[in-house]
Design brief:
5-stranded mixed sheet, Ser/Thr_kinase_AS, Ubiquitin-like (UB roll), Ankyrin_rpt, PH-domain like, 698 residues, alpha+beta
Length: 698
């Protein structure tokens, strides 16, 4: 087959066999690029995200065609930088102290550790990484009023609009503290959003006005901050004025602006023309991007978002409606997805993300919106409060599928967020599992995004050892997922019944799990929640990896997942250290699950969660007497404390523990499970522990 590889803006066309491994392809590319294999990174652009190709996989496993060009990037050789938090901590201390000389010394140390010139993206990552997940260097510099360090941070690509975990921007902090020099530095930055608010606080004008910082109020007004914006509690900066001078300055400024508008040439005061059209809308809670219809209503002063053009023509209410004067930010996003040019609209409590297939069209939309905002802020008196219209919930329905299509047979499980039912699809007598999740409970516990993530990921995956999602839809109160029904229960039931497995039994099940995780990693997806309760057994006794609520796409070592989540007994050390996780975290969990299969208990297990976390972070793994040596060696290498030192998927499959296993036959489901369906069904329906092995397959 023919494939195309893009490298340094040049197109390399090759004729190769689909069975070729990625490693072999890199060997061929070496003759064109002179790059060694370990210096090459091949990237495949999928519709939703990018995938870094795995060296051990074949091209056919990625469904590569001439219409899907690959991108080749050069990997820069660099030494390990150690724990990023160490660098962040050192820089934060100097930002608090205001010691500019020490600040430069730390940057030089960083440079020496890399044995290379300081690359802006690496430094940018450190400067914009919050210490312990809370504040970044720039927030501490703004809080302490160290203007020189603040200026250096901004010149070194610190984000001037970055928000802390307790909802402060650097400008808000400087205004609240009364550090006028810091305010001057921040608002002079070309990327500063002077009107930016957070979910709990108004603009810098609100904060400086309420704190009585008169000179900062004057400075912000001179730099054209919007004095009519309301903070999250619905109050303007004038209403918050702490002294009479501020109470006089703000209306005087507003009056001067009104007088100025009458001096402007009438040609410049014409109301902008309305504008409308179809664009694509994307959001974290959408499984698929939606084509929507946007209308710039320049007669009434509103930005309107309709689900379809027909909804607009039929005069239905828009899904979203925001007054132009309430829009805080409009910008084009620099996201590199083929033929998708994104723009973002931000209001006080909302962010709307759209894209078109052409850059000039995206630029036209942003220009039109900005023109409308400028006109209504300058020439039209503020209207009465406009209520923001929001849709009732995430849009995940699929046409033609709803609850009426299914007949509930029985409830088979329940949890904190909902229930699972065995259902029959009407008119075709097919059995499925229906997962019902309560939207109110999900929102209250901030779990809605995980439920939507599960839908998104499962819809894109088909693998013999991963539970397939067939349909997803919703009602006013619940989300529904229609999945394969696994009649033999989950793996925890089998472990509870037998206490532990023999080496051949554990080898079979952990190998099927490895194939499932390997497939996810080939798509740059990490699973993050591998445990017996999430491993289902299908009708033949093979495993099905389920519950993808914590899975995350587009995760690499350069782009790790930072959320603290998972089941305590299986958490990897790097998660406890809050240094970010990527694929080695799943490798650690494979080792932890294999340990439990062979011993009956998770590693380091204790009922005291603080002791458990301490053991995971510091303790040595202890194996029972007479434990299988090959299994011991494998588990030890899977659960190494340093992520980079753990085995890769290719190394796992080549380990002596799996010497007698045919991976290709296992992938095709040609290897019989160690337990028969009849035996597993008996296990599922009994509470007895330590059952008879009479039905175990030889």
């Amino acid at each position: 087959m023919k494939i195309h590889v893009l490298f340094n803006n040049e197109r390399i066309e090759l004729s190769v066999d689909a069975s070729l491994t990625v490693t072999k392809l890199k060997e061929i590319l070496k003759t064109y690029t002179s790059l060694d294999i370990d210096m090459q990174k091949l990237i495949l652009q999928l519709p939703t995200h990018k995938v870094t190709l795995n060296n051990s996989f074949t091209l056919s496993q990625y469904n590569i065609s001439p219409a899907t060009p690959l991108t080749l990037k050069q990997i820069n050789a660099r030494n390990s930088m150690g724990d990023m938090s160490r660098w962040v901590n050192r820089l934060v201390v100097t930002c608090q102290e205001g010691n500019l000389e020490k600040f430069y010394e730390i940057l030089k140390d960083f440079e020496r550790c890399k044995k290379n010139s300081l690359e802006i993206e690496d430094l940018k990552t450190i400067l914009n990484t919050p210490l312990n997940g809370k504040w970044c260097c720039i927030h501490y510099a703004a809080y302490c009023g160290h203007g020189k360090i603040l200026k250096e941070l901004l010149e070194l690509s610190a984000d001037c609009n970055i928000i802390t975990d307790d909802h402060w921007t650097p400008l808000q902090i400087s205004c609240f503290q009364g550090h006028i020099e810091c305010v001057k530095i921040i608002i002079s930055h070309p990327l500063c959003n002077i009107n930016k608010m957070t979910s709990e606080r108004g603009t810098g004008l609100h904060l400086s006005s309420s704190c009585g910082h008169t000179q900062i109020v004057k400075l912000l007004l001179e730099n054209h901050i919007n004095p009519t914006l309301e903070d999250p509690s619905g109050r303007t900066a004038l209403e918050l004025a702490a002294n009479m001078e501020i109470a006089e300055i703000i209306p005087r400024y507003i009056g001067q602006e009104l007088l100025q508008k009458y001096k402007v040439n009438t040609e410049c005061t014409e109301r902008p023309l309305g504008f409308s059209g179809e664009v694509f809308y994307t959001a974290p809670w959408l499984i698929n991007d939606k084509q929507v219809y946007l209308v710039l209503d320049t007669q009434n002063g509103n930005f309107n978002h309709y689900k379809t053009r027909a909804a607009y023509v039929d005069e239905e209410l828009p899904d979203y409606s925001i007054a132009f004067t309430k829009i805080q930010e409009v910008k084009i996003l620099s996201e590199s997805i083929v033929e998708k040019y994104f723009f973002l609209i931000s209001g006080q409590d909302i962010k709307l993300k759209y894209y078109t297939n052409f850059l000039d069209m995206t630029e036209e939309w942003t220009k039109r919106i900005l023109d409308a905002i400028g006109f209504f802020r300058t020439f039209v008196p503020p209207p009465a409060k406009v209520q923001l219209i929001k849709p009732p919930g995430p849009e995940i329905n699929e046409e033609g599928i709803n609850l009426d299509n299914f007949e509930i047979i029985e409830e088979v499980g329940s949890g904190s967020f909902g229930k699972v039912f065995k259902v029959n699809k009407k008119y075709c007598d097919e059995i499925y599992a229906l997962k019902s999740l309560n939207k109110v409970t999900l929102r209250q516990r901030k779990q809605l995004k995980y439920a939507i993530a599960e839908c998104k990921i499962l819809k894109t995956i088909r693998h013999p050892y991963i539970l397939p999602l067939y349909w997803a839809f919703q009602s006013d109160t619940h989300l529904f997922m229609v999945l394969e029904f696994c009649p033999l229960g989950d793996f925890s039931k089998l472990l509870s019944y037998l206490h532990h497995l023999t080496v051949p039994q554990a080898k079979f099940y952990i190998a099927e799990i490895i194939l499932a995780i390997e497939h996810l990693h080939s798509l740059d997806i990490i699973y993050r929640d591998l445990k017996p309760q999430n491993i289902l057994l299908d009708s033949l006794g093979h495993i099905r990896l389920a519950d993808f609520g914590l899975a995350k796409q587009n995760v690499t070592q350069e782009n790790p997942a930072m959320s603290f989540c998972g089941s305590p007994a299986y958490l990897p050390p790097e998660l406890l250290a809050q240094s970010g996780v990527w694929k080695p975290a799943d490798v650690y969990c494979i080792g932890a699950n294999l340990f439990e299969m062979l011993t009956g208990d998770p590693p380091f297990f204790t009922e005291n969660i603080n002791v458990l976390y301490h053991r995971i972070a510091t303790a040595t793994l202890n194996f029972p007497v007479n434990f299988n040596e090959e299994a011991k060696d494998l588990i030890s290498k899977l659960m190494r404390r340093t992520p980079e030192e753990r085995l890769t998927m290719a190394e796992i499959k080549q380990h002596l523990f799996f010497n007698d296993l045919n991976w290709d036959e296992l992938q095709k489901k040609n290897v019989s499970p160690p337990f028969s369906p009849q035996y597993l069904n008996n296990v599922r329906s009994t509470e007895k522990v330590g059952g008879s092995m009479f039905d175990v397959k030889k």
